[in-house]
Amino acid sequence: MVWMDDVDAPPESNLLASAREGDSAAFERLVAGYRRELYAHCYRMLGSVQDAEDALQESLLGAWRGLAGFAGRSSLRAWLYTIATNACLRLVTRRPRRMLSADHGPPRQSTDDLGVPVAGPVWLEPWPDDVPATEAGGADPEASYLRRESVELAFERVPRTPQRAEWEALGADGQRELVDAFVAAWERADLAALTELLAEDARFTMPPLPAWFDGRADVGRFFAERVFATPWRLLPIRANGQLAFACYQGDPEDGRYRLGAINVLSLRAGRIAQISGFLDPEVHRYFGLPEYFGLPERR
């Protein structure tokens, strides 16, 4: 895709020379093509969209102030990635470590008490797929190395599974069948059909609530006793390169369905290994979703 801002853009070397002379507009054009991938890089390191925004702004400010020191021994992209990586590592030392539900406490079996929401910037957050998180075409090997090494440093505690490979292994028909089956089971409150889609050791998490459930039986009990107590409508979306759903909960008073959760699915061998639910409205706003089911998206 060719963006209109890129049409007839001056060569990077010209923009770099002008920016070094203090031309802030030239600097903005110089880094515009890297802004989105740097944003995604910061998210990969920090696990938070908001923290990634803060780190990106700090990175670009640092690049502007340090542009005179850019000697050109590496590519501009690699230099920017180095600055962004360092900004993220500084941010990690100043803010609480983002955690998964399993970091907070053991799984629960009873569905009676889900705990008090743990507020504040403490949970890992999902990344909306409409904010590009893939490498830009032609990214040089040096930048790729920096990105890979920095992500492993900051996220080595998070289990990583090849979710893209899991999704592609289903094939187009299998993907469509999984989406249709999941939506139908959830909207119809069909517990048997839903649990059939789950792996035996499936997990369900729902920050900021601390409660989480481990194993098909306990997850199924939670759905039967809590989730299916109200009607739902689901909208398939994508997050973190994975299948996800915007889940709209029915209001018994007015009959409308309001956005209540974003659930990100992790797959393993064709079954659902984890449903990561995110209940915080602040997280929902990153996805630009309508507040009520059936309304246009907010952009």
Describe the structure in your own words.
This protein is α+β, with helices and mostly antiparallel strands and 299 residues long. The chain has two domains: 7-94 and 138-157, Orthogonal Bundle (Rna Polymerase Sigma Factor, Chain: A), CATH 1.10.1740; 163-287, Nuclear Transport Factor 2, Chain: A, CATH 3.10.450. The protein has ten helices and six strands. It has helices at 12-20, 24-46, 49-66, 76-94, 101-104, 141-155, 163-187, 191-196, 216-225, 281-284; strands at 198-205, 212-214, 232-239, 242-250, 257-268, 271-278. It has a six-stranded mixed beta sheet. A hairpin with a 6-residue loop joins strand 4 (242-250) and strand 5 (257-268). Helix 2 runs antiparallel to helix 3, helix 2 crosses helix 4 and helix 4 packs parallel to helix 6 (141-155). The longest helix has 25 residues, at 163-187. It is elongated and about 65 Å long. The model is unreliable at 1-7 and 132-159 (pLDDT under 50).
